[in-house]
Structures are given as structure tokens and as C-alpha cells.
Design goal:
Layout (H helix, E strand, L loop, with lengths): L1 H8 L4 H11 L15 H8 L1 H5 L2 E4 L39 E2 L4 E2 L1 H7 L2 H8 L11 E4 L9 H11 L15 H5 L6 H11 L6 H7 L17 H7 L1 H9 L15 H8 L6 H24 L5 H14 L3 H4 L6 H4 L18 E8 L4 E8 L5 E9 L7 H5 L1
Antiparallel strand pairs: 1-4, 2-3, 5-6, 6-7
The chain binds zinc ion.
């Protein structure tokens, strides 16, 4: 919306003139029109048009800048726009045509001639400034008439449909324990706070505001990208959790098994603080890789995500204090009644865990190989979006 505001208020800017010449020509930004093969900037400008319509209106000065039939300029009418009487559009074009610039009065007869009685009354109710000042576009969501991102965000969130995917923030969440965690990067701590409070620009959230945004998860392309899906329940992300030193098995049949639930459990007792820190590093690493998938066409690699999470975790690790506890955290999680507990293989052996899961017409198979220290040696996922079989674990085997 900020970009749209600039587009409307900075007509002399080079980029505005370029877009205007390419897409609008003599049309108005406000005219609904289907465009094909347009630039991402123009697509985003069009996507917010309906939201802009309720927040923008001209303050009439000379009227030279305002197009009568497309621009918003009559505060007392729906969408601040006029429809006029048949044939009127051929007579007048700019609001300046309706104003006697010498006397600074409305041309009352012409107004009655061109508009319905209701519209005419609304127009004549607009008080014209005594001096011929320039027209000014107003942002109606702030007292000053100037755009602010905060007011735009407030407007959008008030208009947005309620989201069933928004986590219900439990005030009993152990925020204090999170902030008091030692040996963890503050940026990772803050990131968990952003995730739990639903402050991450996930696609499902953005799609509430901009209808043109596809809300599909960029990793599996099956489910909407919500907090719990992206960071926990996505088929490929499950592999990350299972292959990590935490060895977390994501129970898809338990609706209470959410990210907030898991971290609340970890943060409730000092014995599982290391699992909480590793968990923070994992969601941070998932987010970084997800962004590379979205913006750099990167391929999501669970093994790479785990490796990066371990780097983040080790950044602030005091080896002597922590190394003995982490491999056992899957048994210390406490709250998670995991249906599978991983145990290390005997010395000199490699343990390979395999699991499969199905979506509507898809199957994903994961494989994790770890040595006797619990270190991940290999990790592989296979995703098939055209699957029609029945038993995923069997096929995985
Ligand atoms: Zn997904």
C-alpha cells in the first residue's frame, strides 16, 4: 500500500511515469481492468487497489488534477465516487470543469445538469478553498492526511477475516524462561517470539490482505503455509525434526501438538532448556531455508537445515556444559508423548530410520542415518505429488 500511495502522490517520479505509460496510458489507476503478463510491481499495485479505495480521497483545490469519473473526490458518496447522468461524461472530464476559477464557486447549473440530485447535493456540499490551491490527495486513516504504514496495517487487520490458523497466545507461555535462556543468540530467541505471536509474514497471513497471493506452502505445495504447518507439520519439515538431535516425532493425529505446545513444554523445566534452544535453532534454520526456496529457487534439503541449525546452536554453546545433555533430549521433552523414541545404535553401527506419510494424492518418504553418537550422517526425502497407493510406511520400507 505504501508503494501504491507513492504511485498516486508522486506522478513525476520516473518509475511512476514508466508504469503509467506502459499500463495506464490514458486510463486511471482506479479503473478495474484485467492485465496479462504484467510486472510484479504493477501486479502488487493492482492487488491493493480495492483496499486503497476506502482510504484515499482528493481534497479539491483547483480541480485540475482530479478526474471526475474515476477518481475519489466526493467525501459523502460511497467509495467517494460519482456515476453521473447519461451523457454527462462527454461534457466534463476534470473537476476543474465544474468550478468557476474566478469566483471560486461551483458551477451549480452544470452540476445539476450532469449529476443525480443526490450526487449534486454531495458535490455542492464540498467547500472550495478561497485561493486556487493545488488539489491534494488525502490518506483518510490518519488525522494529517499523510500515509503511514501503521495506519495501513491497522486498516488491513481490521478488515481481514479472522484466521483459524492464528495461534491463540496462551498468557501462560513461559516467556520469562525464553528470555532467560543462556547460550543462545538473541536473534534466535526473538525469532521464536515472532513465530509464536504469529508475526512472521507467512503466505497464509499475507493472503488475508492481498487476494492475489497464493497461500500454498512453498515446500510441499499441498497445504496452506501456516505457522504450525511450515515449522512443524509440513511433510519435509517433519524430517528435519526427526533427523535433528532432538529426534522429535511429529504426531499428525494430535491437533494439540502445536509449536506453542511443544515449546511451552520445553521451557517449563530446566532439564529440557537445551531442547528448547535446539528447537529455536531449528525453526530459525527452517525459515532461512524456506526463504531461499521462495526467493532464490533453492531446493529444500532437510540435512542442510539440520546442519545449519547445529551451527546456530553451537554458536553460543559452552561445550563442556551442554554436550552430554542434548542427545538425550528426546527423552527429556516430557510433554511430548512421542510414539517413537530414538535410541543410539551400538558402537560402530549406523542406524537408519525410515518413515512415510501420505497426503490426499501425495506421499513423502524420509530417511535418516545416524551413528552411535546420534550425529546425522545422511538424510534424504522423496516427495511424490501423484501418489495413489495406500500404505505409506509400507512403501517407505
Ligand atoms: Zn508444506
Amino acid at each position: 500500500m505504501k508503494l501504491a500511495w507513492r504511485f498516486l502522490t508522486q506522478p513525476d517520479s520516473c518509475w511512476v511515469q514508466l508504469l503509467t505509460a506502459k499500463y495506464l496510458k490514458l486510463e486511471s489507476y482506479w479503473t478495474e481492468k484485467k492485465y496479462h503478463n504484467v510486472s510484479p510491481i504493477w501486479r502488487s499495485l493492482c492487488a491493493v487497489r480495492s483496499s486503497m479505495k476506502e482510504a484515499v480521497c482528493w481534497a479539491v483545490g483547483t480541480g485540475h488534477e482530479i478526474k471526475i469519473w474515476s477518481d475519489p473526490w466526493v467525501p459523502y458518496l460511497p467509495d467517494f465516487r460519482v456515476e453521473g447522468l447519461p451523457g454527462a461524461q462527454r461534457k466534463i472530464y476534470r473537476v476543474a470543469d465544474l468550478i468557476c476559477q474566478h469566483s471560486r464557486m461551483w458551477k451549480v447549473d452544470l452540476v445539476h445538469e450532469c449529476f443525480t440530485p443526490h450526487e449534486a447535493r454531495a458535490i455542492l456540499s464540498i467547500r472550495l478553498p478561497m485561493d486556487a490551491v493545488a488539489d491534494r490527495l488525502l490518506w483518510l486513516k490518519t488525522p494529517t492526511g499523510q500515509f503511514s504504514s501503521k495506519s495501513a496495517y491497522t486498516m488491513l487487520t481490521q478488515n481481514a477475516p479472522s484466521s483459524s490458523s492464528s495461534p491463540k497466545i496462551n498468557p501462560a507461555f513461559h516467556w520469562k524462561a525464553l528470555w532467560q535462556l543462556q547460550g543462545i543468540s538473541p536473534r534466535v530467541q526473538i525469532f521464536l517470539w515472532r513465530v509464536i505471536t504469529n508475526s512472521i509474514p507467512l503466505k497464509s497471513r499475507l493472503a488475508q490482505f492481498v487476494s492475489s497471493i497464493d497461500n500454498c506452502c512453498p515446500l510441499c505445495h499441498v497445504s496452506p503455509e501456516t505457522t504450525d504447518h511450515l515449522f512443524l507439520k509440513c511433510e519435509v519439515v517433519q524430517l528435519v525434526w526427526f533427523g535433528s538431535p532432538i529426534g522429535l516425532y511429529v504426531d499428525m493425529n494430535n491437533n494439540d501438538f502445536t509449536l506453542e505446545y511443544i515449546f511451552k513444554g520445553w521451557l517449563s523445566q530446566p532439564s529440557s532448556f537445551e531442547a528448547a534452544k535446539m528447537g529455536c535453532a531449528i525453526i530459525w534454520s527452517i525459515w532461512k531455508s524456506r526463504n531461499r526456496v521462495v526467493f532464490d529457487s533453492w531446493k529444500f534439503d532437510p540435512k542442510e537445515v539440520i546442519t545449519n541449525a547445529l551451527h546456530v546452536y553451537n554458536e553460543h554453546l559452552v561445550a563442556a556444559c551442554i554436550s552430554p545433555t542434548l542427545p538425550q533430549t528426546n527423552t527429556q521433552v516430557g510433554l511430548v508423548e512421542a510414539s517413537a523414541h530414538w535410541s543410539r545404535p551400538p558402537e560402530g553401527y549406523i542406524k537408519i530410520n525410515v518413515d512415510g506419510a501420505t497426503g490426499k494424492n501425495s506421499i513423502v518418504v524420509g530417511l535418516v542415518a545416524r551413528n552411535e553418537f546420534g550425529v546425522v550422517l545422511a538424510c534424504r526425502s522423496i516427495f511424490d505429488g501423484n501418489w495413489s497407493g495406500k500404505d505409506a510406511p509400507l512403501e517407505a520400507s
